[in-house]
Each structure stands twice: as C-alpha cells, then as structure tokens.
Design goal:
The complex is a heterodimer of chains A (about 325) and B (about 350). Chain A is built from five helices and 21 strands. Chain A is mainly β and about 325 residues long. In chain A, strands 8, 9, 11, 13, 14, 15 and 17 form a seven-stranded mixed sheet that branches. In chain A, strands 10-21-18-12-16 form a five-stranded mixed sheet, with no helix packed on it. A four-stranded mixed sheet of chain A has the order 2-1-4-5. The two termini of chain A are about 25 Å apart. In chain B, the strands form four sheets. Chain B has a seven-stranded mixed sheet with strand order 12-11-10-14-19-16-17. Classes of the chains: A mainly beta (about 325), B mainly beta (about 350).
C-alpha cells in the first residue's frame, strides 16, 4: 500500500526531471514520459531526434560563450547540456542525430554504446540500440574526445529497472525520490577557439564556468529539478553524472550518504561518505538518508568549481546546489 | 589522556599526538588576518587563519580541535570581518553549518564594503557560539565558508578529530584498531598570486584560475616538510603502529604514498570502511579524509610522498615529501621530534 504512494511520488520526480531536463526552465516532454507512468516491462520503441548545433549560451554573469548542444526539437532546454533521456530496461531507442556543427561527431554512451559510425557535418544518421542495463549514464560524442564534452555535447541517460521498482537496479537500493545532477564546465578560451573552427590543447584546460544540470548557482536553487527537495525520513537517490572534463569531489552538507554504485557497479568498500569523488566520465549513484530538516549545500569541493569566472556564490557562482528538507 | 586545559602539546614520541590541540569539546577561535607563512624558498606568503591567542604553534593549518563522540561541542568564533566556521563532515544542523546564505555569517558589523560576498545573508554578530553533538569517532575538518574559494586558500582551515567515547587517543573508534602514535597530514597548496594585500574578494581579477606553486603538508613545503615533526614519522619502535589522518582541504587531488610501504585504509570521512583496504597508495580528493594505518617495519628508511594532481588528474603539479624512519629523530639543530620549540610560530 505504502509502496504505491511512494512510487507515485518517485514518478512525479521523474516527470519533473524530464519536463525541464538539463536546459533548465523550458518546459518540454520526451516520448518516454508516458512510458514511465504506465505498464512495466513491455518493451517500447522511442523515436527521438537530436540536433547537434552551435549556439551562444549566456553565462550567469551576463557574458555569452559559444557552446555546442544536443537539442531535442520536441522541446529541449536551452542549456549547454541537452535534454535528458529516461527509459526502462527492455525499451528500444531510435535516435536520429542531425549534425549542424562544422565537424563530424557520433553518438555514444560510455559503458553501453561504443564504436558507432560518425555523422558528417550537415548530415544526419540513425542510431538504434536497446536500453542498457538499469543505471545512470550519459550520451555524448566520441569523435572529438574531451573537446566535445567541454563544448557541451552531452546529456544524461537514466535507465530504470524492468520491474518498475523505485530502485537503482533490480534488487538494489530503493528510494523515495530521485534527482539527476549532471556536472559540466567550460573554459571560455577553449570555446572561443573551437567556435572559430580550431581546436584546443586540453593540457591548457582551466575551466572558469561550472554547471549542475547546465545551471549555475543560484539558478540551481530556483530550478525545481535541480533543487534537491525532500521530506525528513525519506531516502533520496542522487545520480551524480560527470559529463565534463574535470574530476569533481562532491561534498554533502548535513548528511553522510550511502555510495550505492560507481558506473553501475555496486560500491562495497568505501560506502559511507560526505565527499565522494566523481571522476571524468563517471556516474556515481548515492542514497541520501534525509535524517534532518534544513537547507544544506551540495557542491564540488574543487572550490573553484563553485565560482563563475572567479566569483564565489554571492551574487552568483558555479556548481553549487541546495538540498532542502522539510 | 585528554585533560581539561585548552592547550595540549605533545611531550615525546611516547605520546600519541603530534600537534597543538584544542579541547576536548570546547574551543575558542579568533580570526587572524595577518598570518605569514615562510616557505622553503624563504618566500613570505600572507595567510588568514583561526587562532587562539599567543600560543599558535603555526598559522596554517589552524589549531586541531578534539571532541568526544556523543558529547556536546561548543566552538566560539570571534571575528571583526565576515567569517564563519563550517564543520566539514560533522553533519551539523543548518543553524551551525557556517554557510552564509543558509546559516548566516559572523562579524562585528553587517557586511562591510562587499568583503566576504555576504550581502543579504543573515548577520549573526560576534562572538558566535557553534554547537553540535560530536558524531562518529573519526577525522573531520573545519574551514571558513565565507567567500570560500579565497578564504580556504588563505589558510582558514583545520582538522577536527572525534575520539571514541571515553576519549582514547590511541584507538580509531570504539572497538576499532589501536595505534601507538597518530599524525594529521593536512594536504593543500598555495597559489601565491592569490595572497595579495587588503581584504581580498573573489572575482575575475583575484581568483580566476588556481595555479598552485607551493605543495604542502601541514603548511610546510619542500625541505621544511621533510623535517617537520608533525609530518615526519620517526623513531617508531619496530612494529609500531602509526595512524595517519590524511585530510585534503586543497584544490588538487592528492595521491599519498608511503615510500612503497603497504598500509591499511581503515576509514574515510569519519566512517570505517566496510573492511580495511590494504594498499600502497591512496588518492585523497579535495574534501575527503582517509585514515591510514601503517605498521612500521624494522629498519625503515623511506620517503613518503604526496603528489598533487591537476584537476583533470592528468599530471602531477608538485609533490610534498616527508620521512618515515625507524631512526630516533635528530634534527639539524639537535632537537628531538618531541621538542615543541621547533614549531615556533611564523606569525609576527
């Protein structure tokens, strides 16, 4: 009985996540949305268009920086990270990638989909693949290496267990709510060079803008999918997905968390942490037992990662989120 | 082992501790913004730190605070300009969390001239008493959370050790491993270009990109780390057990190696591991703590290293080195490691 209530609540959060995606405020829906609310375990095929394009993204301090994004024309957000995808084990994706950039890219999912053919500039290509095993992933481009991620070609992918449970994987830790936190950053010098048709030596990569779900503080606290809201007594799953090019030790104020999985492999050694390292390309799922009420930051303890072009948090900053428990 | 005085200093190798401690369970800290750290190359680096009067053993890191699991802790902060204490990993409640936007800031006057980037946040006045109940025995940190990117770099950083119930300083937690002597290795770096004069505020001209040029353990770099009695592990009897509490409050991931010696990682972030991990290296990322238990073999003569990596984990930017030696320590000026007169303050 209680399970049903809890599941409905978790579903609500999934819908919220999908609605706003990583772009932030823009409302949109993905074809997977109804799938998550109805029957379980019946493989469904999702046809999704993604457009890789170069746009100018306003930073929190008013500066505009050229970025790349993977936009879903069905309603992707405006962020440098594209809309999120969420499905269930047993589902099938047909993703048509239209490449409006000035160079070739491809569509890969680290840990699940590799070695895919590239799509040349100005062309489009269909990528068909089954949903991988339950867990947290991101999709990105592998042709341009770190440059592609540094420019913003990434979006989170969450696969729920086939049994329809609110768990991280079949038989794994359960949760009352879940949030996805995709981490990324940019070095505006890289963006200018790459936007001008060039490349960039990643040895010189020193990012100066930092994002959670494509947002900077205080946007992170004003976005309903990035503000980690909960009620005391709940278990909240947070999927920390590092889609950028720097390592991020994520520090939780107020709580020790249970590190559940690293790249979909259960963590069995160093489980109870207040700071957990999320390396480049890693997906770390944690369960936060909400054992006290209050508002507590969640941020990278690479403290420069909480700044925006050097400015710390007030009036604006970088990859700092707020967890708010009533 | 733990007395009631507010100042305790190590008296010799037989003692388990190697630092100036405050506590147990109470500490009174002032903000000092006139610190000066002399680096191994004789460069003077301006620092800010939490002090406690005229007995600071060094300016960076700030004094170590001891607490006892399950007991109430009171830490009083007195500050003229906006500063706070965040008790990192102690999971305190919001009122005591030290984050200006959610918990307010301590200062004599409300936000002055933009210093601290706390405009609009709650002004708590000064002094302010932080209170919490010490959680699980283990290794924690404290630091200022006002304009954090610069206040941490300036040196407003310290360690909190929570002792098991009863206050043993030779057991990691109740029922946990025991040790003969403990060391705190507080890992961090300086970008000397960030340590200018005046009330520094984060921004594009002050804190844009962190490029460290000094690589430290306990506020010492180069040859000073090698010879520092708080870092160098010397004179441990054969088979003696040393607990190294490695805490990273810097901005670079730090790889700790004990000269090839194997050790047990027994805890991280104030919690025991599911089972001890035996290894010869441990990466300690910014904000993390790892408790390393080393049994010192006979006739040991090793150099322990801390390699500071860039934030992409692509290359080593610099290394801090200290000794692990079975020999009884004789420093160049003839002092033994327990002699605290070695640790003269670098503060004017």
């Amino acid at each position: 009985m209680e399970f049903c209530v809890v599941l409905a609540e978790a579903d609500m959060n999934r819908r919220d996540f999908l609605k706003a995606g990583l772009g932030g405020a823009a409302a949109f829906s993905l074809p997977v949305l109804p799938r998550l609310r109805t029957e379980q375990g019946l493989g469904t095929t999702f046809d999704i268009d993604l457009i890789a394009e170069a746009v100018s993204k306003p930073m929190i301090d008013g500066v505009s920086v050229p970025v790349w994004q993977l936009r879903n024309p069905a309603g992707a957000g405006p962020g440098d990270l594209a809309s999120g995808l969420m499905a269930q084990e047993g589902d099938q994706f047909n993703i048509t990638l239209q490449n409006d950039l000035d160079r070739a890219i491809n569509f890969v999912i680290p840990g699940a989909l590799a070695g895919t053919p590239q799509v040349e500039a100005g062309n489009s290509l269909l990528y068909s693949f089954p949903a991988p095993a339950a867990g947290s992933y991101f999709y990105t481009d592998a042709i341009n290496g770190e440059i592609g991620r540094a420019m913003g070609l990434a979006g989170p992918l969450v696969i729920m267990p086939e049994d329809g449970s609110s768990s991280l994987y079949p038989g794994g830790p359960t949760f009352d709510r879940q949030y996805t936190v995709a981490l990324s950053e940019l070095d505006d010098r890289l963006n200018q060079q790459v936007a001008g048709g060039g490349s960039y030596d990643m040895q010189n990569y020193e990012p100066n803008y930092f994002f959670a779900n494509g947002l900077s503080f205080p946007e992170t606290a004003g976005d309903s999918d990035t503000l980690i809201a909960s009620t005391q007594g709940e278990d909240v799953a947070i999927r920390l997905i590092n889609a950028g090019a720097i390592t991020n030790p994520m520090h939780f104020h107020g709580y020790h968390v249970q590190v559940a999985t690293r790249n979909r492999i259960p963590e069995t050694q160093v489980v109870e942490k207040d700071t957990t390292l999320v390396r480049v390309g890693d997906c770390v799922d944690v369960i936060v037992p909400i054992n006290q009420a209050g508002a507590y930051p969640l941020h990278t303890h690479y403290v420069p990662g909480t700044t925006a072009n050097g400015v710390y948090v007030n009036p604006y900053g970088g990859a700092l989120l707020v967890m708010s428990a009533t | 082992m733990i007395g009631n005085t507010t100042q305790q200093q190590q008296s010799g190798v037989g003692e388990s501790r190697s630092f100036t401690y405050l506590g147990p369970n109470t500490a009174s800290l002032d903000v000092k913004m006139n610190g000066n750290v002399v680096m191994a190359d004789a460069t003077n680096i301006r620092s800010w730190y939490f002090g406690n009067g005229f007995n600071d053993d060094r300016t960076v890191p700030s004094p170590l605070i001891e607490a006892i699991e399950g007991e109430s802790v009171r830490v009083t902060l007195d500050s003229m300009l906006p500063h706070t204490i965040h008790f990192h990993g102690l999971d305190v409640d919001q009122a005591n969390d030290g984050v200006p936007s959610t918990s307010g800031y301590v200062s004599f006057m409300p936000a002055m001239g933009g210093f601290g980037r706390v405009e609009g946040d709650t002004h708590l006045g000064t002094p302010f008493e932080y209170t919490f109940v010490a959680p699980h025995a283990g290794t924690y940190m404290y630091h200022c959370h006002v304009d954090t990117v610069i206040h941490l770099e300036m040196g407003m950083i310290g360690t909190v050790i929570v002792r098991p119930p009863g206050g043993s300083a030779t057991q990691a937690w109740s029922g946990g491993p025991t040790y003969d002597k403990e060391f705190v290795w507080h890992l961090h770096t300086f970008d000397s270009s960030w340590h200018g004069f005046g009330p520094i505020v984060s921004g594009p001209t002050t804190t844009l990109r962190h490029r460290p040029d000094y690589f430290m353990i306990n506020g010492r770099d180069g040859v000073n780390t090698l010879n520092d009695p708080t870092t160098a592990i010397r004179g441990i009897p054969d088979g003696g057990r040393v607990l190294i509490r490695a805490t990273n409050i810097g901005y670079q991931p730090a790889l700790v190696q004990l000269g090839g010696l194997m050790f047990d990682v027994i805890a991280s972030d104030g919690r025991p591991l599911v089972a001890p991990l035996t290894t010869d290296q441990q990466l300690v990322a910014p904000g993390e703590r790892y408790d390393l238990l080393l049994t010192v073999p006979a006739a040991t003569d090793k150099l322990a290293t801390v390699d500071y990596y860039d934030i992409r984990l692509a290359s080593v930017l610099g290394t801090a080195t200290t000794e692990i030696s079975s020999d009884v320590p004789i420093f160049e000026d003839g002092f033994e490691s327990g002699d605290t007169s070695m640790w003269s303050s670098t503060t004017p």
